[in-house]
Amino acid sequence: MGRPVRLDELQTPALLVEAERLDANLRTMSDALPGTRLRPHVKAHKCTALARRQAQRGHAGFTCATIREMEGLAAAGLGEDLLLANEVVDARRLSALDARVTVAVDSAETIAAAADAGLHEVLIDVNVGLPRCGCAPDRAGALADLARSRGLGVRGVMGYEGHAVGIADRGERERLTAESMEKLLAAHVDVGGEVVSAGGTGTYDCNAAATEIQAGSYALMDTTYAALDLPFELALSVLATVVSVADDYAVADCGLKALGMDHGKPAIEDAEVWFCSDEHVTFAPARRLHVGERVRVWPSHVDPTVAYHACVHLVSGDRLVETWPVDLRGW
Amino acid sequence: MGRPVRLDELQTPALLVEAERLDANLRTMSDALPGTRLRPHVKAHKCTALARRQAQRGHAGFTCATIREMEGLAAAGLGEDLLLANEVVDARRLSALDARVTVAVDSAETIAAAADAGLHEVLIDVNVGLPRCGCAPDRAGALADLARSRGLGVRGVMGYEGHAVGIADRGERERLTAESMEKLLAAHVDVGGEVVSAGGTGTYDCNAAATEIQAGSYALMDTTYAALDLPFELALSVLATVVSVADDYAVADCGLKALGMDHGKPAIEDAEVWFCSDEHVTFAPARRLHVGERVRVWPSHVDPTVAYHACVHLVSGDRLVETWPVDLRGW
């Protein structure tokens, strides 16, 4: 991949990260959760270059959602303590990694998968209120016993309060988090081990029960998280080119294949976004734009946006600082 | 990329295409719109191997949405007649292609871009009711004159009735299409040329005005188009593995990074889909599933789903026939 010299020569749509805002977000978080208190989740950025910056700030352990993310971090020399915070039924690729590997388990089948693959360590994944993976809290102790009987080290418990992280009202967010952590700590009593892994960007400062927080979105942010009362700045946008202008709207080349859309439409400054098509966003700007002009499109959900792009450009004002491959994509 | 021998050994999530249904869809469409009456849109599948099958059925010309799609088709030897049905303000990469290249223009700026790049042929893109690209119908003649004055050959007009293609009621769909084509034909009188390019999968059989139809979704389909009264079968699914089972729901490893979500949730047979997370779908199955079992997840929108995947597996029953790279991704 050639490295363009000027930002205005980038082929659009192009994923941009504001360098100063990224730095501020990383600093704010590591001030609040230093060292191993934070286990950054790489699913939000899928980028080993960005993970390296997190490691340089003292966070030696990482959280992953896929085997591919685990492999990529290990290959990049960032394998000091990798947690696959997700269930897998075929763990064989994980046993080949040059890394400390811990995997979440919530059933006899996933424990067997970890043991059969020759892995050494697991966390018992507990359902704390989000209907997704995780065993019922009162099953956690039995699963820990089963894991130990298969020769696996049980490092502790994990439980993601995903139903709380996006709640706008802080009081309600705190209440749901406390309720979830009560379940997790009860399971922890039965399971043992030193790790209580939980949390996300929305609850990083209201989850006192977890020994480590699995936040990821804080580094780049999106318009959904920016609507909460969090001290992190929007750092991720998609640079787009205006390709058509009508009397009351304009069209730029950033569409459904450059944006995660599950949280809704993206935002454009001083404009009302009407809709997105495969390769277009149609929007009503406050002033008349001209064809060829560039606009920043701000995604509503960082994770599925980043996953569409082969690389991300670190920028400072109009200067292109560096280009990073989004090298943890795929499975 | 290694080619797995058995379908049940595929790493999930994995994009699958049912070979027989794909064949049936290609046949149905080329029976209805033989040869150059169809100009297949490759944005829906982004796959030169699939485009080659369309070419083998007699469709020598293709429609593209991005420069990358144009480049990929040309490099694959499928460049007999390529239309970039989209506006670009920097057309220089197109002039290097070993292909017949036509590009849509709707402004003085995009005409200048085509001329400056040394391209030879354009279509005048006309707004026929969808607020996206395209000039006002009464501006088309003047733009054609401008293009000719810059040495460009004007092959005719293009106008996409995108606001009609998804309408469930056939009568209303026909009415909107007729209304749109009235505008396009009026512009065509002013523009001249032999091409009237329009249409999509939803209007392929009710647009008699266009000389060529730009349908793409018909080959693979999605649950949104399948809800219309069209003779095409759902051929595209994502194979997923059940990784966790609770009393009233199950979780499989196919989420927001494997599915276009702008048209809503995917479908799973004999199950109610609750929600998707980055790497998960949570659903309530009619019967209790077991961890490790595989399910097919049917996307609601084909185009942004395919764009997440590096390859697509052609399958026949439980047999893996072939693996095709999704080689037209990116920009």
Tell me what the structure shows.
2 copies of one chain form a homodimer. By secondary structure, chain A is α/β, with parallel strands linked by helices. Chain A has 2 domains: 7-15 and 232-325, D-serine dehydratase-like domain (Lyase, Ornithine Decarboxylase, Chain A, domain 1); 20-219, Alanine racemase (TIM Barrel), CATH 3.20.20. Chain A contains 8 helices and 16 strands. The first copy, chain A, has helices at residues 19-32, 48-56, 67-75, 108-116, 140-149, 170-191, 223-226, 302-306; strands at 14-18, 61-64, 81-84, 101-105, 121-125, 153-159, 195-198, 212-213, 236-245, 250-252, 267-268, 271-276, 281-285, 294-298, 311-316, 319-325. In chain A, the strands form 2 sheets. In chain A, strands 1, 9, 10, 11, 12, 13, 14, 15 and 16 form a 9-stranded mixed beta sheet that branches. The first copy, chain A, has a 7-stranded parallel beta sheet with strand order 2-3-4-5-6-7-8. Chains A and B meet through strand 9 of A and strand 9 of B.
